[in-house]
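Dear V.,

Thank you for sending over the compound details. I've combined the ligand you provided, pyridoxal-5'-phosphate, with the protein sequence from our construct and run the structure prediction for the complex. I'm sharing the raw inputs here so there's no ambiguity about protonation or stereochemistry in the SMILES, which I know was a concern on your side last time.
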Amino acid sequence: MKFYSLNNSSIQASFKEAVIAGIAPDKGLYFPEEIQSLSSDFFKNIDSYSNHQIAFKAIHQFVSADLPDEILEEIIKNVLDFDFPVVEIEENVATLELFHGPTMAFKDVGARFMANCLGYFSKDKTSQVTVLVATSGDTGGAVANGFLGVKGVNVVILYPSGKVSDIQEKQLTTLGQNIVAMEVSGTFDDCQRMVKTAFLDTEITSQKKLTSANSINIARWLPQLFYFLFAYKQAKSKNKEIVFSVPSGNFGNICAGIVAQKLGMPVKHFIASTNANDVVPSFMQNGVYEPMPSVATISNAMDVGDPSNFVRIRHLYQNDFSKLQENLSSYSFLDEATKSAMQKIYSESGYVADPHGAVGYLGLKEYQKSNPNVYGIFLETAHPVKFLDVVEDTLGLSPEIPPQIQKVMGKEKKSIKISSYEELKSYLKDS
Ligand SMILES: *Cc1c(COP(=O)(O)O)cnc(C)c1O
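Below is the predicted structure of the protein with pyridoxal-5'-phosphate bound, written out as C-alpha cells.
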C-alpha cells in the first residue's frame, strides 16, 4: 500500500517512508491510496475476536508492505496492553473510556504505535532519527512515554512554560534517557512555530533526520481507528444504530473513526464536538473554512484554530459537502456549558467526566434531540485527574490519583529553558 500527498497524488511514499518523513515533501498530509472493506462476517462476529486480533485485521492492509506479520503482532501486543471499556451512564448514552493507558490520555495508543514502528525501522541503522514535537499538554507526555528507551530515536519536546498542568509537566520532564524537554518562555503557538521552522531549516535537516509525532504522522493517526472497533464490539448487542461523538481538536481521532466506517463498520453518524474553537462547526453550517487563532478554554487539548486533519476528512468524502453533512454533524460549546454538563452528569449518574469528555457528551445530546433512538457513544479522551483544578472547582471533589500518575509526581523535573529559535537550533545542531 502506498500513501499519497493530499496536495499532489503523484507524490507517493511507502508506509515506512511516510512514517519517517511525517509529512510529504510538498507539505501535504499522507493518505492511503485505498481503503479495502473488511468482510461483513467480521463485523457480525466481532465479539468473538480479541482486541489484538481486531487491531491486526484493521491495520494490516496499510502497513503490511513494511511490517512483517509477526512484527505487527508484536507491536500490537506492546501497544494494546490495557482496556477500552464502554460505560453506560444513561439510557442510550455511553462513554468509551480511552484513558486507561500509561499517561491517561487517548494519545497513548498512537504515540506507542508510532514509537514501535520507528524503533523497528531504525533498528539496523547507524543514523538516529530525532522526533521533534510541540505540545499544549497531553501529546508531550504520551510521546515521552511511548518513545522512552527506543533505540535509534531521540525525542525533543517543546512546551510552553507555566501553561501546562503540573501533572502534564511531570509526565514530560521526568523520564530522562532519550527524552529531552524544552521549556519555552512563550505560548503553545510559539512552540509550534519553532518546530515548523526547524523542519524547514536546511542547516539542521542536512545534519539530522527530523520527524514529527503529532497526528499528521500516519503511524500516530491510523491506529486510533481501533477505538471505534473496540466500542462497536461492546455496543453491538444493543441492536441499535450507533453514533459516535468525538471531542475534537486536530480532528485526527474522529477522522480515524471515519476510516473504521470505511472499513465496513456499521455507524449511523459522527458528531464532532468542539469547545469555543469552532472552525469546523462553522464550516458545517456555511461551507466556508476559515482558520482562526486558537482561544484558551478549560478543554485545552482541543484549543486548535486550524485543525490539521480536517483536510483528510474532506478527502474521505471526495470534498462533497452534502455527503459530508449526511454523515457528520459538528457543534461547539462554551466553558460554562461544559461545566454544567460535568455537574449534570455527576449528579444524575455519579460519573466524573473530564472537560473534554463533557464536550463530547453535549454534542451527543444535541444530536439526540432530533435522533432520540440512536445508541450514542461519546469518547472520554482523558482521565479527569489530568484536569484536576477544573474537576475540583466544578464538582467540589478530588478524584483519586491513579498509580501511573503518582509514580511521576515525586520525580524531579529536568528541562532546558529556551526563549528563542536560535537556542533550539544550536541545541539540535550540537547534540
Ligand atoms: C488531543 C486531545 C483531543 C483532541 O483530539 P484530536 O485527535 O486532536 O481531535 C481531545 N481530548 C484530549 C484529552 C486530547 O488529549
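A first observation: The two ends are 36 Å apart (CA to CA).

Warm regards,
I. M.
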